[in-house]
Design a protein that fits this description.
homodimer, 267 residues, alpha+beta, D-amino Acid Aminotransferase, Chain A, domain 2, nine-stranded mixed β-sheet, five-stranded antiparallel β-sheet, 26% strand, lyase (chains A, B), EC 4.1.3.38 (chains A, B)
Amino acid sequence: MFLGTRRVDALSPYDRGHAYGDGLFETLRAHRGELPWWDAHWARLARGAQRLRLPLPDPAQVRSEASQVLAGLDAVLKLILTRGEGGRGYAPSAQAEPVWTISRHPLPPASPAGGLTLRWCDLPLSEQPALAGLKHCNRLEQVLARAEWDDPAIDEGLLCDASGAVVCATAANVFVLQAGVWRTPPVDRSGVAGVCRQVLMELAEVRVQRLNADDVLGADAVFLCNAVRGILPVARLGERHWAPHPAMAGLRHRLGATHPAFVPSQD
Amino acid sequence: MFLGTRRVDALSPYDRGHAYGDGLFETLRAHRGELPWWDAHWARLARGAQRLRLPLPDPAQVRSEASQVLAGLDAVLKLILTRGEGGRGYAPSAQAEPVWTISRHPLPPASPAGGLTLRWCDLPLSEQPALAGLKHCNRLEQVLARAEWDDPAIDEGLLCDASGAVVCATAANVFVLQAGVWRTPPVDRSGVAGVCRQVLMELAEVRVQRLNADDVLGADAVFLCNAVRGILPVARLGERHWAPHPAMAGLRHRLGATHPAFVPSQD
């Protein structure tokens, strides 16, 4: 944990991260101690910091500390940046030094070989253009949505907004293949602008468009993606089953070509 | 700080309060070391804990620790309850022991004798019925709204939802007098079910109804209220000025009769 550039031993109970979720985070895939998508993660963090008027720590220091924490391993690195101490009251202090923590976590278990099983979440996501797209620390909606099921056969849940537009999964973006073109929902009212989503939009033709539940169910192929796990093909959503699709295999191959961390184990 | 019933010295950087704002809080007025609205605060905390499926600490222990922290003073007591450690990922752990902190803060400065000066905030509040009414720790909207101004002549800002319905101020509920009856907006889609708001609804005839900006500007009297400061008469909102109103004085008097902490200094 760091306060500005100084290492500290403990979080303050007055940290605005703890009091208000007044912060941002990034969850990065580490491959042999390296962070292949560092630049994209830092760029999103910087966009969020600008929107929340949070001072950013020194990226060189964060990277160097991350490298020590990672110790050359394959892992997940989590970075949390909060506004630090701010007394009681919502007004952000202009003087507060930001607090940042980095922590290493094991890679998640491999996803099921046949593809993911999804459900629809009941919770409608709220719409807040001022926060949409950011990976901010106000995540109670995701906590509530993920708490809707504890059946281990269900891998993830899809979330819609109040108008029925599909937004994302609890911890991943969603892509669907319609008429030979990949499509993913906009994230300007809800949802997170995922780093893997962005990488894929640069690798392939992807249309950002509003999708409803029927668009997903009627798609020729569906996948989820995030920066830790890359592309995760979906096999099942309720009664709907999808067979492996060559366009999915092609996209996974192209993603794997960008960095060995994202080479698919098996298609 | 306490983990379950055990006192701990530091917050874990893995606390889900810090990571996701996965918690609840209460801000209580203390008068000579006592907490006049304790029951109402605890009831709201319990409702929130049920909604978020957070285990509650032992109220007797919290009250006894609060009493020691308060040391007989007039002050503000802040209680934060978070889900504790939960690893990485949104799924709440069923085993996690809740973490709670209590802290004492000075009373805020007296409000301006002539009444508050308000502004309209630009940020529209999002609508999330699953969280509305709760005093949860996802407060980035309030942080952003409060950051809209730094003019010390402005005391508070009013917030509307995306449909233009007035919801609340950044840290207070709002009441308006129309045709001799006090009215306050519902808090079932946005906003917090304030403890002072609830006390006033038991003391006087209050109609819960949707209000728009014109309803506020056209009202015969307007006040904000919260559990720390009681009733705060509004003197000004943009070009609109309000003179002191006898109905306001009457209601402040009735609130003051419930407990000496809320006796108005001057009307």
